[in-house]
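name: query_chain
kind: protein
chains: 1
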Amino acid sequence: MHLSSEVSSTTNGLGHEAPSSSYGNALPSQPLTAELLAERTLEGLLADHPGELVKTGSPHV
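structure:
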């Protein structure tokens, strides 16, 4: 799993440019929740294995 690249992308905000260097470690506008982290991890796994895994939205499939 490539967690380091996923976590570093969350510290710059959600799709926004990074603030000036004096505020380089600013928190994103939305807090990183377990659900958001799981979603990003799943998206990373799907990107690493295209066509092998299918996101169905159902917890039982």
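note: The two ends are 22 Å apart (CA to CA).
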